[in-house]
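MODEL INPUT / OUTPUT PAIR
PAIR INDEX: 1
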Amino acid sequence: MGGDEGSRIPGFHTLSPADRLDAVGRRSGLGNAGKAHLLEAGAPLTELADHLAENVIGTMNVPLGVATNLIVDGEEVLVPMATEESSVVAAVCNAAKQCRETGGIFASWTGPRMIAQIQLLGVADPHHARVKLLERRDEIAALCDSCDPMLVKLGGGFRDLEVRLLETRVGPMVVLHLIVDTRDAMGANAVNTMAEKLAPHLEGWVGGSVKLRILSNLADQRLVRARAVWRTETIGGPDVRDGMIAASAFAEADPYRAATHNKGIMNGISAVVLATGNDTRAIEAGAHAYASRSGRYTALSRWEETTDGDLAGTLELPMAVGVVGGATKVHPTAQANLKIMGIDGAERLAKVIAAVGLTQNFAAVKALATTGIQAGHMRLHARNLAITVGAEGEEIDRVAAALIERGEIRQDVAESVLSEIR
């Protein structure tokens, strides 16, 4: 570490954010300039952040851009995206513009149902126990709904029951699935509370020992789907269309390609999820698990030729997002971003997010199938390099332009160009 003390800081969690920052600064060699930056960058939201996370010393700002040109189910929408990755927002804007003539993106979803799992070990007669538990469906429903009367009043609550028998390396398990309509909330707290309440009853009904009681982020009862058509002449002709379809087939068949293909989709999706204060890790985990549901990891999207010879794209994945509760409700930036989108419900938010994922995927696949992804990335990277070497104001664009013109997008060249300019 840069300072003269170790990482052990007794009572650290009881300090104020400013005092924590002082303590970290002394131990890390952060210096006054680093401390001042963290204080200035985090000042407006540090108090709120201190309630959202632990051991807070400030906040880390992420660029917030707005994607334009999107039409989702016939409605124009501006979409805030929080991302540090170059080209993501621009890619969505360009892809959305190219399918406006066919009506934009069309989306659907299966409803706001979440799954809570309860794990039972040591059940002597698991098949018999499964049937006994299914017989108690109404009793289980009443116990679950009693946990959250307000959710029930809003039209949500318990919807269904599944009981699965798993063979594992530590023996058989009985796994109960509670399927719950969580309305406009993501719903983790609601379903976890229900699982906790139900657990002791299960042991009394069928024996065994209850262990885990937790939601599943493979929210396959809460799917969102998006589709769109791009005119072949608009995107560059049959060769471009066929190249994109071949790229899609590659991702469908090969997990090494599928991982990067799906990462491109999540570039767009995670940016909107983060901008609205939702759980990016939950969405990422659910998406990749869903891509593996057949037993082999594959692409989340599909690209095909229509009967008219145009390019059709489809995307399907779990989308457990909400507009009430958690950071979404208390973070002013998340609230402002929902306002920009004109969104007041989880359904519309899920559909817009899926639309962004599909357009992001279109842009990435098209670039890969034609000019390659690196040319665009390096043009944007040139600006980052200019900033890295100390360029300011109009110098940034001048340095970046010189790097692109020379075809040498490297830090040493950026330093040389900046010296020449100055």
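PAIR INDEX: 2
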Amino acid sequence: MTDTSRGNEGNVFGGAARASQYIEEDTWERPPDVQEPADEPGESGSVLDDTPPDSPSADIPIWSPSLTPTESPAPADSTSVLFGGSAAALTATDSGKATTGFRGAIARMGFPVKPGPEEVAARHLESVRLEAETIVRQATWTRAVSVLVNNPKGGTGKTPTAVILAGVIASIRGGSTAVLEVSDDPGALGYRAEGNPKLGLGELVRDIDQVKTAGRLHGYTAPQTSFADVIASTGRRDRLTGEAVVSVCKVIDEFYGIRVMDSGNVTTSSAFQGAASVADVLVIPVMNAGDSVLEAIQLLEELRAAGGQPKRLADTAIAIRLTDGRPENQAVTAEVARLLKEAGVTSLHEVPYDAHIAERQQITLSKLAPATRDAFAAAAAAVVISLKNSVLTDH
């Protein structure tokens, strides 16, 4: 870790560096009736002053998240056509008149009433959402592309991030997206994905030389309602090697346009090294906690030190910050953002607390809160742009 990150961690995080050795359980429980504590005296000074200023939210791959629930009120339900909203909302941003609430009623009587602040904010969010979906839907490339999801710190939401990110992309694009477990030992992907397939990753590794068709490969997957296909462990299996990861990815890429890889906590393992060698974009899930961001920064430093493709992953990394429902301090939140930016992460996306993720059960895209789906759609747009850029560098 750099001297800069070590010097900055003490003021806000306290014992976070020591806590980085502790692998917390991947729990997403929101404590009942917990209020966010006020900032400690002296914590909201220079730390908050260093927070990067908000950028225009229409720019998807920006530092400040394009969909931040705290910045403007979101509509009660997503109006995205993708997630079952009304198509009528698509034209709302073109109208200068109010369409909702009391103002909307007056406008429908023929009076020139402009929309109120809440409707303006809702229209803005809708515009950003539609732009994100358009970017994801219309992106093309000349080969299969891949996303690696990793943070060495346990309990940061790697598996939910992989499942939801792939699900959002598959829903928007109509499929052709595979989610692959690339951890040394069986991970949580099989538990968090929908379905209970009889065959999975272990059997696919065993039979990889015999998989020559899409129909045969489909037999090792768990199809999701999002139109993504998950390939995870269905039970005990041999430890995954880098060679096995590369072999499986080569076959998957013959039949899927996008591959999202859910990795483990050991970045020095053969499986992770193999996954990194066949990845185009790195996505790092983080929490508003010191150990989470410090290990993420260490991952970036290790990848840059390795040079080549790992360095490119670090230089183009995208961070997704999740909330697990525990009380959060505003100074820590700002410090996490500042340290990530100093570490070279140029795209940070906020995901609000979601009760469905907190259930720690199978994740169904339609059961997520609209704000969660919208936040992942914005992150997916940033990922897709990075994937396009990665393919361009091949030529």
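PAIR 2 NOTE: The radius of gyration is 21 Å.
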